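FIELD: query
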Amino acid sequence: MSGTDTSVKSLGGGPVVILVDPQLGQNIGMVARAMLNCGLEELRLVRPRDGWPNSAAESAASGAGVVLEQTQLFDTTAEAVADLTRVYAATARPRGMITPVVTPRQAAAELRTALATGTRAGVIFGPERSGLVNDDIALADAVLSVPPNPATA
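FIELD: result
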């Protein structure tokens, strides 16, 4: 049998996930579901296009209501990351910025170390259509570069 076992406490304590300008409620819900599957519960939204709360997100979350219930809403990316000490900006496009670029494996190791010492950390993701703008990336300590599938790039 599959599903969320609400009798077991979630792992919690992982990095904050920040979605900037998310377009579809369904995508927010699917992110919440993926987060809960990985033991992450802190989701922040910056200017969701279709508003918040969103019934499409609730439907797509499929048992991850705990993530949606505590989701925080922000007007700017700067406000969303203000309390975080270590921030990664996820992007696949080269930007020519001074910000260090790390692989997903490097970022995971650095996040694990930071979180173990009590450092508040997060990962910023941009809108589905266009990704993060440079002003949002400039708020990060490092760029988390996920190489795209060459067949779809």
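FIELD: remark
The radius of gyration is 15 Å.
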